[in-house]
Batch of 2 targets.
Target 1
Amino acid sequence: MADKKKLVEAITSREEDFAQWYTDVVVKAELVAYSTIKGCTILKPAGYAIWENIMHELDARFKATGVENVAMPMFIPESLLQKEKDHVEGFAPEVAWVTMGGGEVLPERLCVRPTSETLFCELYKNIIESYRDLPKCYNQWCSVVRWEKTTRPFLRTTEFWWQEGHTAHATEEEAEARTVQMLNVYADFCEEILAIPVIKGQKTDKEKFAGANSTYTIEAMMHDGKALQSGTSHNFGDGFAQAFGIQFSDKENKLQYVHQTSWGMSTRIIGALIMVHGDDSGLVLPPRIAPTQVMIIPIAQHKEGVLEKASELKEQLAAAGLRVKVDETDKNPGWKFSEQEMRGIPLRVEIGPKDIEAGQAVIVRRDNREKQVVALDQLAEAVKAALEQEQADMLERAREFLYSHIYEAKTYEAFCDLIANKPGFVKAEWCGDQACELKIKEDTTATSRCMPFVQEHIGETCVCCGKPAKKLVYWGKAY
Amino acid sequence: MADKKKLVEAITSREEDFAQWYTDVVVKAELVAYSTIKGCTILKPAGYAIWENIMHELDARFKATGVENVAMPMFIPESLLQKEKDHVEGFAPEVAWVTMGGGEVLPERLCVRPTSETLFCELYKNIIESYRDLPKCYNQWCSVVRWEKTTRPFLRTTEFWWQEGHTAHATEEEAEARTVQMLNVYADFCEEILAIPVIKGQKTDKEKFAGANSTYTIEAMMHDGKALQSGTSHNFGDGFAQAFGIQFSDKENKLQYVHQTSWGMSTRIIGALIMVHGDDSGLVLPPRIAPTQVMIIPIAQHKEGVLEKASELKEQLAAAGLRVKVDETDKNPGWKFSEQEMRGIPLRVEIGPKDIEAGQAVIVRRDNREKQVVALDQLAEAVKAALEQEQADMLERAREFLYSHIYEAKTYEAFCDLIANKPGFVKAEWCGDQACELKIKEDTTATSRCMPFVQEHIGETCVCCGKPAKKLVYWGKAY
């Protein structure tokens, strides 16, 4: 087992240095490679396959709510980006500019989309005329570019992959309902598929999207207690519609502005997947999102019949609808175990000559290493049951971690102490004043994560300034 | 039926002006919208849904051959693009350059990828060390940018969507086999799914990809007799490997250069789909690729029970695995028929009060307008059978059109006459000299489409110069 030790030694432990552990895992599990372009990473097959599964699952959920996919240009002319004041202020400083094309200097420079509100507004202006054309619920899967100074794989990269939904509605109420609906799609997806529990709430004005009336967010807690904003849904009211002139004639033939929303989830969520579930042996993927759910590892594979049996079991499990592979490489079994664990494959099946003789196999869960000896003729059911239990246990464990790391603060002293010494979120009342958010950030580096939809009442005064409290807020350090 | 007339009048007939017919169809069938960015079109839901089905189908075929998907950066540093001489000469004139990012002038300008050979080479150089790491068979789905002076939706746009596969192999033979294998994947996909028959062959040196040893192509024939290059597969030999230093140690521990291939199919193929099958009423989509296969159109839908029956039939057909919709809008049936035809939906089901009373429905094929009265309890089987027959008939019709528009020329006079007067391809012998290709292009605007894999021998001398013939070539005007 010397090899196994060597592979595991290749990653730093979480307690020693969480940031280094993260970097080690994304590289050793072969999720990404670095490119020579500053801040741009490559998604390798193991990383991209996770994103493919996320796209597949989310896309079906979007379509079930009536969303249609489109593809928009990757460029935005400077004049178009400038049409909505808050929006351009929010994004202009971090965009990449194309200034030459086809050997000539362009008459107007084009930015590479950092997000596509302006392009969708232009399209909607052209294709919406009457109430019959509403609602429009479009989405696109693409990559966007935001020039970043410091970058980390998945969490913050100059180019990243995402989906951006953009909708237009006849009424304020309908837009608000869609904004909430899509946030719930994200939250349900995170819990049901990624086994990541989230806090749903509204961003403060300081933290909301550039140009939005309101931004709703789901916040997940990483193993180090930091928050990761995992999906957002914005209600724009008719602000963009006014800036772009997107009007429709209603049933009384009167011109009205549309009400718009946008909502997005990105490859950032893979960072959450790693930091919520991973352990000191590497990645741990929930079975429902894992590209490979089961790795069959033959023991003493040179012996007669072992590889044949492994391949037979693979066919059996694949026929039962599982994503399964056999590791037939010439590495030793200990090394193969380590690799399967490093890559977060949820279950392994060990099968050797003695097992075959006894008509059994050993199955081992990735999350808790629980072993089970299973009769070969019941393998498929046993594997399915183990994977379902693993998925449920992972969510339960993550929930327990989340809720046991949420604290309450009623005084500023207690608040600062908690933020400094207790990894996790702190609930505290807030007066609604941005000055308090700024002071808290300066004193503690924590930011307001959200005003949760489920509002409790834990005090009368703002934890920071002592003025009357308006909202309960979750605070925390964040990625 | 006044409305119907109006909708159909909105498109020019193919005989009158094929180019205008094409533009009318892409707009009226709502496949694309124009953006304000020069040469960039928007894929609207109806257009993008076709591309989604193409991606889905091709991706499964790629994966069945062992291909893995990745995502690469959209930018290429200028120095990286320049590493392979022919390649940079081929692409540098038509790229878009990013010169500023995050408010600063970049130290080195980045081009937006026109294709990603150079990025894959850089990655392969970093991750390939030994023969154990081979082959690498990566693919990505993305958009690329080539600055175009004149553009047409799907056929030639500044930004377009595609997949690009890039592989690295230990031997020349393996690379050659992969090049041919992927061309066959494309050809089979075109015939089986898109009902587009193709000619498989090799490009001449003049027409091959910048940096390739050899380029294989599939050429389809549009309704106006012009060729459309529909997919290409390139064998690079070890040229890129030498330029980028991609080496591996073989089983004898000797350093060797890898052999590489690349292959791509793009949204251009949707142009072929339109121009092979479309007619004067609009788009005609083969059932296997159509996003909606069946449109149920209620007749006298205000009458009791009609909409209920339509929706019941929809459930029934959906349960049988069909992609089906009901047109419940308040337009009149004639208008709905025209829209369904314009959009190329392969089959419509008409259901009205009299049909319901008689326990039947009328089904109408899009391609030949064949009507059939079907008992409601046999609707699903009848619809399935009609769609299968439609798919087969469309391929057969396209095949007949292709082969009846291929001519032979043995003299240059006959050749020029055929190119000028007979829409289609002309088979003729060629000496292998580029001067003849240039002369033919200048005299006739036709280009060499390919040297078909199936070589016939129809003469001893080059049709252009009279020198000894080396290859039979298909010539034609092209998109």
Note: The mean pLDDT of chain A is 96.
Target 2
Amino acid sequence: MPRFPDVSPALAAVEGAVFTRLPAASIARAAARFPLHVGDTWLEPPPGCRMQDLAAAEYPGLHRYASPRGMPDLLEAVARRVGARSGVDTAASDVLITAGATGGLAAAVGATVQPGEEVLLLAPYWPLIPGIVRCFHGVPVPVPVIGTVDSAEAAVALLARARTERTVAVYFGSPNNPTGRMLPPDWIAALAAWSAQHGLWILADEVYEDSVFTGSHVYARSLAPERTFAAHSFSKAFGMAGNRCGYVVGPRDHLASLGKVTLHSFYSTPTASQVAALRALDGRADAWLEEAHTHYREAGMRAARRLGMPEPEGSTFLFIDVGAHLGPPGLAGFLADCAARGLLLAPGPSFGPYPTHVRLCYTCCPPDVVDQGVEVLASLLGR
Amino acid sequence: MPRFPDVSPALAAVEGAVFTRLPAASIARAAARFPLHVGDTWLEPPPGCRMQDLAAAEYPGLHRYASPRGMPDLLEAVARRVGARSGVDTAASDVLITAGATGGLAAAVGATVQPGEEVLLLAPYWPLIPGIVRCFHGVPVPVPVIGTVDSAEAAVALLARARTERTVAVYFGSPNNPTGRMLPPDWIAALAAWSAQHGLWILADEVYEDSVFTGSHVYARSLAPERTFAAHSFSKAFGMAGNRCGYVVGPRDHLASLGKVTLHSFYSTPTASQVAALRALDGRADAWLEEAHTHYREAGMRAARRLGMPEPEGSTFLFIDVGAHLGPPGLAGFLADCAARGLLLAPGPSFGPYPTHVRLCYTCCPPDVVDQGVEVLASLLGR
């Protein structure tokens, strides 16, 4: 049946913005002094990796289409980086360059999920993942696990309860957005084994692999290379989120299917963004990266200490239960109180069933701004 | 049913590259002297609109996320441009900035098509449109019309024969890729009226609006503003295809649904690409545009005359029936013969049911290269 003037009903449940539940009052505050709701980094990209550094004379074709799979040089550089970090033998043919990790995860979902099929989402999760599943007519199934249980067995038991015959994939992010936790190695191992047992794809969101403060990150591909599509990004580590350049690593025989989705979503990843990424990997960014890491870690540690919370293990966020401080207007009222003091925070329900949580990003503004925003929150919480 | 290690069957019918039917021999010829198969432009972007011209000091946030709908300044500039050209009152809220026209058309399909629903494609068509429909689990229905019939009534009759109760939208491109023809004003009017009669959405691909050589382009929104999503791009007109910046214009109440799809496909259009586009619209590109237009038109006219074909009316292509020159190996053999002489052409079947056609782009290489490539083709055709 033709449906004009209606659009696809599948989109009714899809959020129109990352944080639709932010009270309008706070969104209107363009002049917010402490906009700590956004997941971003405040530093400019490393020297030599900015747009003004990219000369068409040095890079012929800088403004023309790149190969839809990615520039060959960048595919090679990424494969070397991934191989060295993850310990998994990785070739250029195992890599697909994408318009950010968003483009990569959308491609992985588009390639693995049919209408009506289900994807288990380890909650709390990155806010866009349920909408990605819905856009391709799949069904997102949130499973609160991180912070809910404290053993790999209990985590798998929760997933097992949520799995049905229509489940085709499981998504998790580590280092985790929003909690700042790392999934422990035995959790990743248990998830990999359980996924193998039930014939599931693994969608591993590893975009915060460069923001690890405690222990080390276990790459999902190191445990389940045959079934894992891992999404990565240059956005956060190199301060180039606006460039929209990331990549997916996964089994090469199936990566071509993801490439079909990206080809038909944005054709190719922006050429200049790929050149900037290539330069960021050639060594010139190393000192910058180390300094940024120190800045970010210290900002996170200071924020956690001031709020009386455990120090973050990774990513760039703190996830805070403010339930004890909510009055009758609930979370919206609390967020409005924050906004009235110039502080914007992301609402818990964007990350799963967390009606009393807020997320704070400690890397999206210079440290002094973050410190002042944290101070506002601490005073509201009586800490 | 879990499907690992299989991927979504919907992708089986989706092409993995723009021209999968190009013989392998020609693809291997990276050193092809006359690569006229690509739809691109050979000129660098206008002065002041290149990446090296974009300084972070001048544009704070140049490397950070842009608003997912588009930078407010660019939305305003595009609305003014579209309003002035199309004669349709257009506000910033009628515009969505997208990762190229590909991202815009994907969003329009994702927002209007449910699984199993059909989209009529006026053939010959842009090669990616069937795959976009399939990626969202819709059914593309090619309807050979352009060059098949010569009246608006006959065109509508063909569409009427192809329409079913599951048809929700009709797609057409004008100026047309690949034929170089413009859909006549009375065709656009008839298509608009017929679509209204049957409650269909119109997906109008108008990316070649700046490459009009004969007559003037009729904007679909000028006839059916309530049901048309028109896709545009900075890629071809401004020599910045690699930037991935385009836009969709359409009914504002429904544009939010398209924005949901882009948000979940690539989050935002690259920030630097939007700044480059904004600069391209501020007047500094005007002289460059005029000169480029002259170059392109003359190259097209020369190619058509040499091949004994009608001169192109618009877009950047010639679509040539080489049926009389095919031997037993068919089109693949002909394309291989071209490739052996350094000439790459796009195969007709990528544009619909055109087993004996080839497409030549006369703007993707400098004029002397195009002229030599055309000479190769003319000699193979005995012209």
Note: Residues 286-307 of chain B form the longest helix (22 residues).
